[in-house]
Amino acid sequence: MNETAFKEALATFATEPAENLSMTDELDEIGIDSISVFELMIKLEDVVGEHATKIDDDMSTVQDLYDHVRKAAELHASA
User: Fold this and answer.
1) Which residues belong to any copy of the Carrier domain (predicted)?
2) pLDDT tens digit sequence for 47-66
């Protein structure tokens, strides 16, 4: 999943449209909370696998979440 597709998926849950999202945006500043992250992972389950919903508390930016999605997708693809 590339950054553009990720931002489009994330924008469904954010207070900003995809084109306004920056990888350095803080998740809480764009309206993304733990429930939003969980719902996003459910939406992306076919890409990231069903076990990707475990989220670290250290994730605070769009980039952190994107890195998590990419890692989960890689693990899912190799399974």
Assistant:
1) 6-69
2) 787 766 666 668 899 999 99
